[in-house]
Design a protein that fits this description.
Thiol Ester Dehydrase, Chain A, about 325 residues, 3 domains, OB fold (Dihydrolipoamide Acetyltransferase, E2P)
Amino acid sequence: MPSPTYEERIKAYEGRAAAVAGVGKDPVNEPMIRHWCEAMGDTNPAYAGRHAMAPPTMLQAWTMGGLSGHTGRSEAYDELFALLDGAGYTSVVATDCEQEYLRPLRPGDEITFDALIESVSGRKTTKLGTGHFITTRMDVRAGGELAGTHRFRILKYAPAQGKPKEQPSPTDRSNPKNRSNPKNSRPRPVINRDNAGFWEGVARHQLLIQRCCGCGALRFPWLPGCNACGCLEWDTVEASGDGTVYSYVVMHHPPFPAFDPPYAVGLVELSEGVRMVSNVVGVPYDKVRIGMPVRLEFQRYDEELELPVFRPGETGESGEGGGG
């Protein structure tokens, strides 16, 4: 019987346990909730007091082992890392995480968890280098009841060597390489069940804002529940498209093939009162100013991707360059 290939060996780790019957080092407690809220600047009254709930995004915090780690850790994760290290994929970077909340956590809840290696990708080439994406899923329980799921994805990779090859200008859409080469295309937004309606609106050239059916508060970005009153029911209102630059940054580094730095990224306050991050286009990056009136438009980047961006309004300074 032939020996398994390298790809077969790493794929064999899919579905194996990464942690079994882990126990949170502390029950859900008021001091940790308070420290978290102070760090985040979150003053929601739902998170204060003995009978408060913990902010849902603290889900992973209750499972962290600190410097001394946890008991119940499986050897599978270490074995997989050793295998990848041996193949030359010695660097690691976190790429993203996803969380799903099923019930609130409250002071006194005892936390337990199990984790497994959900997927190991095939070999992928990225700007950082070539490697494999590893996704771990953790099921978090309170009193034995599933409270939420945390998915964490990393890239285990071999750093790219040497100077990257010169890329055609990503703003030159007449160059066929920019249309056909995926390395020169914009990164795609992550679309999930919580924000799918927003992107459906973008496809119709509508900028949709969530509105709570309980207290009427508008919110952006989209969330599964109201951060003012906790209501889970919502509808949408269409933004007028008028706004002002509340704050902005000018991106110089790192250079990605799909972008042409320097360019301005603005935090735009819409006339409805919510704020969103987007590119400020149609004006040199060094002419963007706080308080500048801007107007929504939808800009197409390739055959599949169209994004909301903002262009200076009638009273803003006009010009070319530096845009999205």
